[in-house]
Amino acid sequence: MTGLRPGGGRAGRRVAVTGVGLVTSLGSDLAAFWRRCLAGEAEVEPVPAAWSTYGPLRSRIWSPLGAWERPTPLLGRLEIRQLDPSSRIALLAAESALDHAALPRRAADPKRNGFRLEGIEPERAGVYLGTGVGGLQTCLESGRFLAFDRGKRRLRELVARLQEEGSLRVEEAAGEIEAELDRLPIPSLFNPFSVAMTMPNASAAALSIKLGLNGPAVTVAAACASGTAALGQGFRAIREGRCDFALAGGTELLSDPYGCCFRGFDALHVLATGERPPGEANRPFDEGRTGFLFGEGGAALLVLEELEGARRRGAPIRAEIAGYGETSDAWSVMAMEPGGRQIRRAIEEALADAGLDAADVGYVNAHGTGTPANDPLEAGVLAEVFPHRPRVNSTKSLLGHTLGASGAIEAAVTVLSLESGHLHPSRNLEKPVGDLAYVTAPVEASPRHAVSQSFAFGGQNSVLALSQAPRAVEG
Amino acid sequence: MSENDREEIARKVREVLAEAIRRPAEEIRLEDELIQDLGIESVDLIALVFDLEDTFGRHLDDEELKGLTTVGSIVDLLASAPAAGAGGEAKGE
């Protein structure tokens, strides 16, 4: 099929990526983020010390987001109260993506702080957003409040009464009770918005409400593949003519004061462990890998537009999504199907959808988690499907795994790679698994076509085929 | 509660409201009605109470909230002693 133009597989409408916005552990400024990726940087730190006081942990490192919140005209004081952090991250990534796409916003409803996008028909504009756990932080917080608030206040009263007695033994008892109370971090109030902030579609709703997008607002929950699958759904909606514009990507926030999310993965023995220094412990596709680096969270939103419409408005065309494939292992909630037959089928479906041959692909942004079981299986499938050895890297080697956000962040990285002609190195890759053309140092490369792939707990496999921005004469 | 304390509460309440409705604090008068004059919708009213509870470290129970109609009534409530059983000072992380 070599020679067919991308997007020529099944339908005439083509889908341009015109903007990218990110919130990641390597920052939210796109240019700085990309410089840091190319330098192979990572933010890896010991987990908060308090987490170990609730029980032993196998893994001791994570990739924290740092101070991600920033003032934005999109969010007023009372609106912030009504959105889970995962939704606020999504809004910030969307704001950056719209700026990157040169899409100005105008205030359309000052009373409700609502906006409209200049030149975009609201009823032809959708939101496709992936998330693994939705507003989990709000849910956990509200549960903690109900379970502990009353008991904590009573214990404090007891401490006060014991202290009034003044005996040393009583003081010792009071000290112990106080220490126990300090291990109960709970919110000061029950959150009246816990339902609206927890529901998984809260972030997609926030984007659609805030920007006045009246097309579909779809939430895709497919664990680690959520962001990739959401981009695939957004791509299809535009190509099939249901939308002309979509904000698509993924968002996630996995932190809590007890380290509950972290412990959930730690208990499954899937996180990076061992005695190496924190910056060297996360090793996707390396023989010394021990598991994935837990990422606190992040978001990536891509502005997708029907190519001709984007050209008419003079939008920057950064890349093209040319095809999408998705399959399910129907095998296990956690383990990949041995042999990776359905992963292979998802890649082939994405390529066929794009009208591409495997040989056309010059770069694969791999799922690349760094777990002992997954990497060899993925490497084996890549070797089979792409015998011509396209370049391969793992963005998770830099950022860790951010569940529902990671696929979208990796698609954004793939767009940046196609646009800039540079590929970032896979960090800590010294003794590679399999004979793939891994990128181990920043490299100049101009692949015309690339693949970005994600495989989820639950067995969902999602693969995007992306291409360099088409030249105007092609269209 | 001294007159200075009350003024400080009024200043803080105006500040919260100003940020919430994106208007200068000087424009917000004590006699302004929350819904009619400031245009605060019912859901935002819940968010406002949540915000005030957090800002002032005090639980406000439903009985106390019944009289909240104007900016001044918020100031009066926060300047008054907590009602019995209202939970008193909010303590948390």
Structure description:
The complex is a heterodimer of chains A (475) and B (93). Chain A is of the alpha/beta class. Chain A is 35% helix and 20% strand. Chain A has helices at residues 30-38, 49-52, 77-80, 85-100, 136-165, 168-182, 194-198, 202-211, 226-239, 260-266, 307-312, 341-354, 374-385, 396-399, 406-420, and strands spanning 15-23, 45-46, 61-63, 105-109, 114-117, 125-130, 217-220, 245-253, 294-295, 297-306, 319-328, 361-365, 391-393, 422-423, 437-438, 443-444, 449-455, 460-468. In chain A, a hairpin with a 4-residue loop joins strand 4 and strand 5. The longest helix of chain A has 30 residues, at 136-165. Chain A is globular. Chain B is mostly helical and 93 residues long. The longest helix of chain B has 19 residues, at 3-21. Residues 86-93 of chain B have low confidence and may be disordered. The interface between A and B is medium-sized, with 24 and 23 residues.
Summarize this entry quickly:
The complex is a heterodimer of chains A (475) and B (93). Chain A has 475 residues and is of the alpha/beta class. Chain A contains 15 helices and 18 strands.
Label the structural class of chain A. alpha/beta
**Biggest protein-protein interface?**
A-B, 24 and 23 residues
What is the chains' assembly state?
A: heterodimer
Tally the helices of chain A: what do you get? 15
Indicate the low-confidence ranges of chain A by residue numbers: 1-10
What structural category do the secondary elements of chain B indicate?
mainly alpha
Nearest-integer average pLDDT of chain A: 93
Could you give the count of β-strands of chain A?
A: 18
N- and C-termini, Cα separation of chain A: 19 Å
Strand proportion of chain B, as a percent range, falls in: under 5%
| Strand runs of chain B, count | 0
Poorly predicted regions of chain B = 86-93
Q: How do the SSEs of chain B run, as a string of H and E?
A: HHHH
Overall helicity of chain A = 25-40%
Spatial order of strands in the largest sheet of chain A = 7-6-8-10-1-11-18-17-12-13-15
Shape of chain A: globular
Tertiary shape of chain B: globular
